[in-house]
Each structure stands twice: as structure tokens, then as C-alpha cells.
Design goal:
- It is a single chain.
- By secondary structure, the chain is of the alpha/beta class.
- It has a domain of 230 residues: NAD(P)-binding Rossmann-like Domain (Rossmann fold, 3-Layer(aba) Sandwich), CATH 3.40.50.
- It contains ten helices and 14 strands.
- Helix 6 crosses helix 8 and helix 8 crosses helix 10.
- It is globular.
- The two termini are 29 Å apart.
- Bound molecules: nicotinamide-adenine-dinucleotide.
- Nicotinamide-adenine-dinucleotide binds next to helix 1 and strand 7.
Length: 331
């Protein structure tokens, strides 16, 4: 594992959503870097097993941050709050649950930010999303102002909640002088994925179908939609670097210009699994924006040139191992 900056050594850091996909990798990096970590999660979606190997090296609090007063109590005496907790699922769920995603996430984010102010912490990371960008944003997408057009249609509720998080986090910085970092990540994956059935994200979904020999393999949409994928370890490295170097209430993309189409992704998975695929595209299913990729100019500038450490090919092999661990009977 690449070491993180000495900035984090002995720093008192809270990670909200710590038992989540990205949060657990972030905790690994922080613990290795000598930070004093309080990991918080209500385990509504996260799983403690993702943190079990760190037992004794961090403190874990199972707490619902939507409960009034919970965040205030946990944040007392802490220096940095890395706020990752959120309700987020794949596109199949998001597309039919806009109101729920909006209301739940706005409430959660408000309580967390108010608690940051009350505890007078030094620094906060607000994790937004590339879903704040409108469907007609240019690609690769630069850091457009938060109120540009409407958030991505397929994730409208979730994207609007992330917009409001950015606006309130900016207000927090202005009113209190707390250093606020804001990141807008693209798509993460990792071998710590928890299967969510039909609501799962695209990489684990395709890996499972390929490994189970689906014939033909059905790919949602036209197969021509392009995405940038980043391993959750690389997400986490970017989150830490932006928090350290750019706590200026100024959003930074976490993602890069390179994209793969869903068809290329499916074929790469098939190749890594040693399976010959016949693919059928299903345009009746939602596919989101045709292209999503991030202009990484600002990310590279503010972090001194951070680049991914885990290429997609290596990540796909990790996901095939994930499948064998998660569904041992079928593997
Ligand atoms: N994974 C991606 O591709 C992606 C892309 C863009 C943005 N993001 C954002 O990055 C962050 C981390 O993403 P992730 O993939 O690890 O998400 P995740 O869903 O795996 O983790 C979120 C965690 O928050 C916890 N949580 C939810 N509500 C809570 C509450 N009320 N109190 C305490 N904990 C609560 C869940 O149990 C879960 O463990 C999220 O804010 C997400 O919106 C993720």
C-alpha cells in the first residue's frame, strides 16, 4: 500500500460511512498512516466485516447519524470529519426512488454539518458526486458551478441532495472558518462489494452474470454508454489528498478522462474469466448518461499530480475473486 502523507499522523479523524465500500479502504489508509480513527456507521448498508481486520487499531461506533444529537456527541474533540455516509444504490434503485434519496440524504448531511460546526472541528470533507452534473455537461466534465442545469436525470434525487450538501458545506466554511474540502467522485468499485441483488452496481452485476454463464449476456442500454471507473483505494487516496491540500470549499472531481463502454467492460470481464460471450443489449433498461468522464486537471493540480495505482484490468481480476468468495457454491 502506498503510504499517505505525514499530515494524517496522530490526527483525530472521524470517518462517517466507515463500513461502506470506500470508507473501509479509507480507514485502512488512515490507520496505516498513524491517524487516530473513529469509524462511524449505522450498518444500514455497510458491513462490519470490512473493518474487522482493523479491530484494535481504530475505534468503531455503530450510530445512526440521523438521530438528533448523535453526531454532536461523536465529533466532540475530533479534528477532521471525513463525511462519506449516504444512501446510494445502483441506477436500478435510484431511478425509482428520487424522493427518498433526496429527503434521507439532505437530512443526514444537515445533521452532520451542524455537528461539525458545534464541535468546532478543523476540517471537513464533503463527499459529493459526479451526479450533480447535468446530462448535457461537456465530457470530460470540468468542475462546473453546482447550480448548472438540473442534476443527472437517472439520479435526480441523489444528485440534488449532493448539490445541497455542497451548498451547505460552503456555507459552513464561510460562517465558521472551518476548512471544507468538496469532492465529486465518478464510479468506484472494489472486491469488498456487498451484493445488493437487482440493485447492485454495474461491475459486480456484470461479473456475476458472466461468471454464471448467462447466455446471451444481457447488457442494459445500448452498451455504448461510457464510464470512468476508479478503484475505491484510489478514491480514498484522492479524498485524503484533496482534504489535506485543498480545503477551500471548492469542488474537485475525483475521476479521470479515460472511459470504457459497457460492451468493452463486459468483454474485458469475459476475457479475464476465460469465457466467450454473446452479448444482447436491452435498450428498454435505464442506462444514464451516454458518456461520463471527469476532467482531472484540477485534481492533478491541487494534489501534486495524483494518478490511479490500480488499473482496471487488475481491478477486474479482483472482482472475479470477489465473485468466488461471495458465491462459493456457484463458482
Ligand atoms: N461508490 C461510488 O461509485 C460513488 C460515486 C460517487 C459518490 N460516492 C459517494 O461516496 C461516498 C462513499 O460511497 P460508498 O460507495 O462507500 O457508499 P456505501 O453505500 O458503500 O457507504 C455508505 C455508508 O454509509 C452508511 N450510512 C448510511 N446512512 C447512515 C446513517 N444515517 N448513519 C450512519 N451511517 C450511515 C451505510 O451503512 C454505508 O456503510 C458516499 O457519500 C457516496 O454517495 C460514491
Amino acid at each position: 500500500m502506498n503510504p499517505i502523507s505525514p499530515y494524517w499522523k496522530d490526527r483525530k479523524v472521524v470517518v462517517t460511512g466507515a463500513a461502506g465500500l470506500v470508507g473501509s479502504h479509507l480507514c485502512d489508509l488512515l490507520v496505516e498512516g498513524g491517524a487516530d480513527v473513529l469509524a462511524v456507521d449505522d450498518l444500514s448498508k455497510g458491513v462490519f466485516e470490512r473493518l474487522a481486520h482493523l479491530e484494535g487499531r481504530l475505534r468503531f461506533a455503530r450510530a445512526d447519524l440521523c438521530v438528533p444529537g448523535a453526531a454532536e456527541q461523536l465529533f466532540q474533540g475530533q479534528q477532521v470529519i471525513l463525511h462519506l455516509a449516504s444512501r446510494a444504490y445502483g441506477i436500478a434503485y435510484s431511478v425509482g426512488h428520487h424522493e427518498e434519496m433526496l429527503r434521507f440524504n439532505v437530512d443526514l448531511n444537515r445533521k452532520v454539518l451542524a455537528a461539525c460546526a458545534a464541535a468546532r472541528v478543523e476540517r471537513v470533507l464533503a463527499v459529493s458526486s459526479s451526479c450533480v452534473y447535468p446530462d448535457d455537461a461537456p465530457c470530460p466534465t470540468p468542475e462546473l458551478p453546482v447550480n448548472t442545469g438540473e442534476p443527472e436525470k437517472a439520479n435526480r434525487g441523489y444528485g440534488q441532495a449532493k448539490r445541497e450538501l455542497e451548498i451547505e458545506a460552503t456555507r459552513l466554511a464561510r460562517d465558521t472558518g472551518i476548512g471544507v474540502a468538496i469532492v465529486r467522485p465518478c464510479n468506484a468499485y472494489s472486491g469488498r462489494y456487498k451484493w445488493e441483488g437487482e440493485y447492485s452496481h454495474v461491475i459486480p452485476m456484470l461479473v456475476k452474470r458472466v461468471m454464471e454463464g448467462e447466455e446471451p449476456l444481457v447488457v442494459w442500454g445500448t452498451g455504448r454508454q461510457r464510464r470512468n471507473f476508479l478503484h475505491a483505494v484510489d478514491f480514498s487516496r484522492c479524498f485524503l489528498a484533496v482534504t489535506e491540500h485543498h480545503a477551500k470549499a471548492d469542488p474537485v472531481n475525483v475521476g479521470y478522462e479515460e472511459t470504457v463502454t459497457m460492451e468493452e467492460l463486459a468483454r474485458a470481464i469475459g476475457e479475464a474469466a476465460g469465457r466467450k460471450l454473446t452479448i444482447r443489449f436491452d435498450p428498454s433498461k435505464p442506462e444514464g448518461r451516454l458518456v461520463k468522464s471527469a476532467d482531472s486537471t484540477k485534481l492533478r493540480r491541487v494534489t501534486g499530480g495524483i494518478t490511479p495505482t490500480i488499473p482496471l484490468g487488475e481491478g477486474i481480476r479482483e472482482m472475479i475473486e470477489w465473485y468466488s468468495r461471495t458465491f462459493p457454491a456457484q463458482a
